[in-house]
Design brief:
It is globular and about 45 Å long. The protein has helices spanning about 5-25, 60-75, 80-90, 110-120, 155-160, 180-200, 215-225, 255-265; strands spanning about 40-45, 45, 60, 75-80, 100-105, 125-130, 165-170, 205, 230-235, 245-250. Strand 6 (about 125-130), helix 5 and strand 7 (about 165-170) form a beta-alpha-beta unit. The protein has a domain at about 35-175 and about 230-265: TIM Barrel (Alpha-Beta Barrel). It has about 260 residues and is α/β, with parallel strands linked by helices. The structure holds zinc ion. Zinc ion binds near residues 104, 105, 173 and 209.
Length: about 260
Amino acid sequence: MTMRKFLWSALVVLIGSLVYFRSSVVPVFSVAPPGDKIPILMYHKISPYSFHGGLGLRVPPELFERQMNYLKKHGYHTVSLDQVTDHWDKGKPLPSHPIVISMDDGYEDNYTFAFPILKKMGFSATIFLVNNDIGGYNLWDAGRMARSKLLSWPQIRAMKQYGISFQSHTLTHPHLTKIKPAAAQREICESKTQLEKALSMPVNFIAYPYGDSDVEIDKMVRQAGYKAGISTNQGQNNAGTDRRRLKRIRITGDVSMSDFKKLLI
Ligand SMILES: [Zn+2]
Protein backbone atom coordinates (compact mmCIF):
# COMPACT_ATOMS: atom_id res chain seq x y z
CA MET A 1 0.00 0.00 0.00
CA THR A 2 1.39 3.42 -0.90
CA MET A 3 1.74 6.08 1.78
CA ARG A 4 -1.00 8.13 0.10
CA LYS A 5 -3.44 5.18 0.12
CA PHE A 6 -2.57 4.41 3.72
CA LEU A 7 -3.28 7.99 4.80
CA TRP A 8 -6.63 7.97 2.95
CA SER A 9 -7.70 4.71 4.66
CA ALA A 10 -6.63 6.07 8.04
CA LEU A 11 -8.70 9.23 7.41
CA VAL A 12 -11.77 7.20 6.37
CA VAL A 13 -11.51 5.05 9.53
CA LEU A 14 -11.10 8.16 11.70
CA ILE A 15 -14.12 9.96 10.17
CA GLY A 16 -16.15 6.74 10.36
CA SER A 17 -15.49 6.32 14.06
CA LEU A 18 -16.19 9.98 14.79
CA VAL A 19 -19.57 9.75 12.99
CA TYR A 20 -20.37 6.50 14.84
CA PHE A 21 -19.39 7.92 18.22
CA ARG A 22 -21.34 11.13 17.72
CA SER A 23 -24.39 9.28 16.47
CA SER A 24 -24.47 7.13 19.60
CA VAL A 25 -24.23 10.12 21.93
CA VAL A 26 -25.63 13.24 20.22
CA PRO A 27 -26.98 12.50 16.75
CA VAL A 28 -26.70 15.54 14.55
CA PHE A 29 -29.06 14.62 11.75
CA SER A 30 -32.51 14.45 13.31
CA VAL A 31 -33.80 16.73 16.01
CA ALA A 32 -36.73 16.43 18.43
CA PRO A 33 -39.55 18.94 17.92
CA PRO A 34 -39.61 21.48 20.82
CA GLY A 35 -43.07 20.47 22.14
CA ASP A 36 -42.32 16.76 22.32
CA LYS A 37 -43.04 14.78 25.47
CA ILE A 38 -39.90 13.43 27.11
CA PRO A 39 -40.10 10.20 29.13
CA ILE A 40 -37.86 9.65 32.17
CA LEU A 41 -37.78 5.93 32.97
CA MET A 42 -37.35 5.04 36.65
CA TYR A 43 -35.46 1.89 37.59
CA HIS A 44 -33.98 0.74 40.91
CA LYS A 45 -32.24 -2.67 41.00
CA ILE A 46 -31.22 -4.49 37.83
CA SER A 47 -30.57 -7.97 39.17
CA PRO A 48 -31.44 -11.60 38.45
CA TYR A 49 -31.35 -12.53 42.15
CA SER A 50 -34.64 -12.83 44.04
CA PHE A 51 -32.75 -12.42 47.33
CA HIS A 52 -32.25 -8.79 46.17
CA GLY A 53 -35.98 -8.27 46.55
CA GLY A 54 -39.27 -8.54 44.68
CA LEU A 55 -40.03 -7.35 41.20
CA GLY A 56 -41.45 -4.04 42.47
CA LEU A 57 -37.94 -2.59 42.70
CA ARG A 58 -35.98 -5.18 40.71
CA VAL A 59 -35.84 -5.67 36.95
CA PRO A 60 -34.04 -8.85 35.79
CA PRO A 61 -31.13 -7.99 33.42
CA GLU A 62 -32.64 -10.10 30.63
CA LEU A 63 -35.82 -7.97 30.67
CA PHE A 64 -33.78 -4.75 30.96
CA GLU A 65 -31.81 -5.78 27.89
CA ARG A 66 -35.00 -6.46 25.92
CA GLN A 67 -36.30 -3.03 26.89
CA MET A 68 -33.05 -1.31 25.87
CA ASN A 69 -33.08 -3.26 22.60
CA TYR A 70 -36.60 -2.03 21.95
CA LEU A 71 -35.53 1.58 22.52
CA LYS A 72 -32.51 1.19 20.26
CA LYS A 73 -34.55 -0.44 17.49
CA HIS A 74 -37.23 2.24 17.63
CA GLY A 75 -34.84 5.17 17.31
CA TYR A 76 -34.77 6.41 20.90
CA HIS A 77 -31.73 8.42 21.98
CA THR A 78 -30.74 8.62 25.63
CA VAL A 79 -30.11 12.13 26.97
CA SER A 80 -29.15 13.67 30.31
CA LEU A 81 -31.44 15.83 32.44
CA ASP A 82 -29.13 18.80 31.74
CA GLN A 83 -29.68 18.28 28.01
CA VAL A 84 -33.44 18.19 28.61
CA THR A 85 -33.58 21.42 30.64
CA ASP A 86 -31.16 23.15 28.22
CA HIS A 87 -33.56 22.16 25.42
CA TRP A 88 -36.54 23.65 27.25
CA ASP A 89 -34.79 26.77 28.56
CA LYS A 90 -32.22 27.63 25.90
CA GLY A 91 -33.66 25.95 22.82
CA LYS A 92 -30.65 23.64 22.47
CA PRO A 93 -31.52 20.82 20.05
CA LEU A 94 -32.12 17.29 21.27
CA PRO A 95 -31.86 14.15 19.15
CA SER A 96 -35.09 12.58 17.89
CA HIS A 97 -37.02 10.39 20.38
CA PRO A 98 -35.13 11.63 23.45
CA ILE A 99 -35.44 9.56 26.62
CA VAL A 100 -33.82 9.69 30.08
CA ILE A 101 -32.99 6.38 31.76
CA SER A 102 -32.83 6.96 35.51
CA MET A 103 -31.95 4.60 38.36
CA ASP A 104 -32.57 5.43 42.02
CA ASP A 105 -30.41 4.58 45.07
CA GLY A 106 -27.22 3.57 43.18
CA TYR A 107 -27.19 -0.21 43.60
CA GLU A 108 -24.02 -2.13 42.75
CA ASP A 109 -26.05 -4.16 40.26
CA ASN A 110 -26.38 -1.01 38.14
CA TYR A 111 -22.65 -1.46 37.51
CA THR A 112 -22.60 -5.27 37.33
CA PHE A 113 -25.68 -5.87 35.17
CA ALA A 114 -27.05 -2.60 33.70
CA PHE A 115 -23.78 -0.90 32.74
CA PRO A 116 -22.59 -3.61 30.26
CA ILE A 117 -26.01 -3.48 28.53
CA LEU A 118 -26.00 0.33 28.38
CA LYS A 119 -22.49 0.25 26.88
CA LYS A 120 -23.53 -2.33 24.30
CA MET A 121 -26.37 -0.04 23.17
CA GLY A 122 -24.29 3.16 23.36
CA PHE A 123 -26.81 4.48 25.93
CA SER A 124 -26.30 6.87 28.82
CA ALA A 125 -28.20 6.92 32.13
CA THR A 126 -28.67 9.05 35.23
CA ILE A 127 -28.12 7.48 38.65
CA PHE A 128 -29.40 9.12 41.84
CA LEU A 129 -26.97 8.40 44.71
CA VAL A 130 -27.44 8.33 48.49
CA ASN A 131 -24.10 9.90 49.47
CA ASN A 132 -23.59 8.62 53.00
CA ASP A 133 -24.13 4.99 51.96
CA ILE A 134 -21.90 4.89 48.87
CA GLY A 135 -19.86 1.66 49.08
CA GLY A 136 -22.25 0.33 51.74
CA TYR A 137 -25.81 -1.00 51.83
CA ASN A 138 -29.36 0.37 51.59
CA LEU A 139 -29.58 1.06 55.33
CA TRP A 140 -32.77 3.10 54.93
CA ASP A 141 -34.60 -0.13 53.97
CA ALA A 142 -33.30 -2.12 56.97
CA GLY A 143 -35.93 -4.50 58.32
CA ARG A 144 -38.40 -3.69 55.51
CA MET A 145 -36.72 -4.60 52.22
CA ALA A 146 -33.92 -6.83 50.96
CA ARG A 147 -30.40 -5.73 51.79
CA SER A 148 -28.40 -4.90 48.66
CA LYS A 149 -24.91 -3.59 48.08
CA LEU A 150 -24.53 -0.06 46.73
CA LEU A 151 -22.06 1.29 44.17
CA SER A 152 -18.51 2.00 45.31
CA TRP A 153 -16.57 5.13 44.37
CA PRO A 154 -14.31 3.27 41.88
CA GLN A 155 -17.43 1.86 40.15
CA ILE A 156 -19.03 5.32 40.09
CA ARG A 157 -15.87 6.84 38.61
CA ALA A 158 -15.67 4.16 35.90
CA MET A 159 -19.28 4.79 34.93
CA LYS A 160 -18.80 8.55 35.01
CA GLN A 161 -15.87 8.23 32.64
CA TYR A 162 -18.13 6.46 30.14
CA GLY A 163 -20.78 9.20 30.41
CA ILE A 164 -23.21 8.08 33.11
CA SER A 165 -24.55 11.09 35.02
CA PHE A 166 -24.75 11.04 38.83
CA GLN A 167 -27.23 13.22 40.69
CA SER A 168 -28.52 13.58 44.26
CA HIS A 169 -30.89 11.28 46.12
CA THR A 170 -29.96 13.03 49.42
CA LEU A 171 -27.42 11.94 52.09
CA THR A 172 -29.42 9.26 53.94
CA HIS A 173 -32.68 8.67 51.97
CA PRO A 174 -35.14 10.17 54.51
CA HIS A 175 -38.74 11.30 53.99
CA LEU A 176 -37.74 14.95 53.52
CA THR A 177 -41.07 16.36 54.74
CA LYS A 178 -40.97 14.29 57.94
CA ILE A 179 -37.60 15.43 59.30
CA LYS A 180 -36.70 18.80 60.83
CA PRO A 181 -36.30 21.62 58.26
CA ALA A 182 -32.62 22.08 59.18
CA ALA A 183 -31.97 18.37 58.61
CA ALA A 184 -33.84 18.45 55.28
CA GLN A 185 -31.79 21.47 54.24
CA ARG A 186 -28.58 19.58 55.03
CA GLU A 187 -29.73 16.52 53.07
CA ILE A 188 -30.51 18.70 50.05
CA CYS A 189 -27.49 21.05 50.11
CA GLU A 190 -24.68 18.78 51.30
CA SER A 191 -25.51 15.91 48.98
CA LYS A 192 -25.12 18.36 46.09
CA THR A 193 -21.86 19.96 47.22
CA GLN A 194 -20.25 16.67 48.29
CA LEU A 195 -21.06 14.94 45.00
CA GLU A 196 -19.89 17.92 42.96
CA LYS A 197 -16.60 17.91 44.82
CA ALA A 198 -16.08 14.15 44.59
CA LEU A 199 -16.94 13.87 40.90
CA SER A 200 -15.90 17.33 39.62
CA MET A 201 -19.20 17.68 37.78
CA PRO A 202 -22.28 19.83 38.36
CA VAL A 203 -25.14 18.20 40.27
CA ASN A 204 -28.28 19.99 39.12
CA PHE A 205 -31.02 17.48 39.93
CA ILE A 206 -32.39 15.77 43.02
CA ALA A 207 -34.74 12.79 43.11
CA TYR A 208 -36.89 12.89 46.26
CA PRO A 209 -36.66 9.68 48.31
CA TYR A 210 -40.13 8.03 48.24
CA GLY A 211 -41.17 10.92 45.95
CA ASP A 212 -41.74 12.90 49.17
CA SER A 213 -41.74 16.70 48.80
CA ASP A 214 -43.80 19.81 49.64
CA VAL A 215 -43.60 23.59 49.10
CA GLU A 216 -40.98 24.02 51.85
CA ILE A 217 -38.78 21.33 50.29
CA ASP A 218 -39.31 22.93 46.85
CA LYS A 219 -37.98 26.21 48.26
CA MET A 220 -34.87 24.56 49.73
CA VAL A 221 -34.21 22.73 46.45
CA ARG A 222 -34.44 25.97 44.48
CA GLN A 223 -32.25 27.85 46.94
CA ALA A 224 -29.63 25.10 46.87
CA GLY A 225 -29.30 25.76 43.13
CA TYR A 226 -30.89 22.63 41.65
CA LYS A 227 -32.47 23.06 38.22
CA ALA A 228 -35.27 20.59 38.98
CA GLY A 229 -36.67 18.08 41.46
CA ILE A 230 -37.54 14.62 40.20
CA SER A 231 -40.68 12.99 41.56
CA THR A 232 -42.19 9.54 41.37
CA ASN A 233 -45.39 10.93 39.82
CA GLN A 234 -46.31 8.87 36.80
CA GLY A 235 -46.17 10.55 33.38
CA GLN A 236 -44.02 12.22 30.74
CA ASN A 237 -42.68 15.77 30.60
CA ASN A 238 -42.61 18.79 28.32
CA ALA A 239 -41.41 22.39 28.67
CA GLY A 240 -44.53 23.26 30.70
CA THR A 241 -44.14 20.49 33.31
CA ASP A 242 -43.60 21.74 36.88
CA ARG A 243 -39.81 21.66 37.38
CA ARG A 244 -40.26 21.01 41.10
CA ARG A 245 -41.88 17.66 40.24
CA LEU A 246 -40.66 16.20 36.96
CA LYS A 247 -42.57 13.00 36.25
CA ARG A 248 -41.27 9.51 35.62
CA ILE A 249 -42.38 6.20 34.22
CA ARG A 250 -41.89 3.47 36.83
CA ILE A 251 -40.50 0.28 35.36
CA THR A 252 -40.96 -2.78 37.53
CA GLY A 253 -39.75 -6.33 36.95
CA ASP A 254 -43.21 -7.53 35.99
CA VAL A 255 -43.78 -5.00 33.19
CA SER A 256 -44.37 -7.01 29.99
CA MET A 257 -42.92 -5.84 26.69
CA SER A 258 -46.38 -4.82 25.50
CA ASP A 259 -46.88 -2.77 28.71
CA PHE A 260 -43.44 -1.21 28.19
CA LYS A 261 -44.37 -0.11 24.66
CA LYS A 262 -47.69 1.37 25.90
CA LEU A 263 -45.95 3.29 28.71
CA LEU A 264 -43.84 5.14 26.13
CA ILE A 265 -46.83 6.43 24.12
ZN1 LIG B 1 -34.77 5.78 46.66
